[in-house]
Specification:
Length: 593
Amino acid sequence: MSETLRFEAFSSMVEPEFWSGLAHHKLHSARLDTARTLVRGEFSGGRRHAVRGNSAEPTQRLAVPARLRVNQGAWEAAQGNTQQQAGAVGVNGYLHNTNTIEEFKKRDKGELLRDAGAEILEAIRSGRATQTPELLWPFLLLSFADLKKYHFYHWFAFPAVTADPPDMATEAPAPLSSFVSRSSDLEHLLTTFAGSSVCAQGAFVARYYPSNVDNPWRVGPLSEWSEIYGSDKAEDGGIALLGFVDPSSHSTRPGWPLRNMLTWLRHCHPEATNVNILCFRDTALLAGGTVDSATLVQQCESIVVRVNVTPVASLTSECQVSGWERNEKQKLVPRIVNLSSTMDPVRLAESALDLNLQLMRWRLAPSIDLAKIAGTRALLVGAGTLGAYTARVLLAWGMRKITFVDNGRVSFSNPARQPLYDFEDSLDGGKPKAEAAASSMRKIFPNVDSQGIQMTIPMPGHSISASEMDSTRATVARLDELVASHDVIFLLTDSRESRWLPTLLGTLHRKIVICVALGFDSYVAMRHGMYAHDDDFEPMGAPKAADSNEAVRLGCYFCNDVVAPTDSLSDRTLDQQCTVTRPGLAPIASGTA
């Protein structure tokens, strides 16, 4: 009996954590780079699953697809970590991640396979595959990551150099349990594998001695071909076999890795034209502890196939490659994974918020330090129109710690002009602005650390009664603590005098202070100068200090004004008490700040 040797194709099994790793890789490492990236996968011996029927039906053992697993550990290949599960064979994969869905669709799939096949043949001819058998089984992953929707388009390929005319199976595949003479020989084979690393390499050569009860097996790596395999007519007798870890659980079809194993054989050992192939599938038993011989015979899944190998000289094409994965309907089409419905909504919101910032680093602002911005603590003095717009801008820049200070309440005129409030906030006398603003920020983005503090800031020109002295001192002390515990202070209040005390405290604690003020159709956005003792520090427009140890700084909001802060709120008409400004100016001023 002689028939065409058929193979069980690989089926990819990708854990969700891998796609999260791909998103991180795209945003932070690859960006616009489409060069292939090394990833890692693994496969184990194929096992059939036992399915129990009813009392009238016996237990059935059903075959499962030959799986190649890819998980979060795939990204550790770049750091040289190639560990895999016990009994598994690790293999290298090459990720080709595109920048657009059009590029994904137009990529020449045939060229990718041909290039992979050429690399496999080069590894065989150079002898590298003999030393490192996993070079025979690389996989390809063509992908496009839509990070706005968390859709991952992908297509796996398992390149196999095919033979035409095909290799032939000269005998029906036989279970290993019937191939050996004694059940104890199976136990000895497992013991031999457990005591060496050849099984983890995925391929090996073996010689079986049926007459040797005590030591029936000799197993070694491919590099020991001449010592172990030799010829079927070797003087020491025994049956020579070429073996590999077989991911297939099909009763008669060996797994996909055998295709390139036979390619290695026809090139490296053309004299071996008719060989016994040991399709070893019982890797799970290696990690399962001791199993008695009787049970081992029942659980053994491995098979032996006799193959007539097509010689190189008879091939119509030396590098004919196939291997793109088919879908569940056996069609050659890519697949899509939608993770948006399975991910934590808060985590999705955080990823989406950071997406635009990370994209800035790809081309426009590659040197921007987003981690430093995210760790900056901002204190917003004033939660009105400027405070609301500034908070939204800071959140869009990735800041996660924003504190509001204000003494007002939300009025009916606020929601239309101040984007952190709505109509409900203005009912029943209005909610405290600072607390309402902080609450709104947390609704917009749950991961923001936002607090609101209701506080009336002491101001020059505004008298304080004797009964208010203690509360005023407590307010000053509280404001001092807030300024000291934040990195940048935004002055966003309606009056000049309310900015005076925060300005002094910002100077005292050497903080960045940014002041924003509105006119009708004009605005001011300025950064207050900071003290420095750096010899190279010379603020623009400021004279250099005569003594290098003398501190120099820019002026502040009040240094650039000829009028001292005083009471600007008393004896004013309504239009003078309010900040009357052109609608749309506040977002521009806040964005500038």
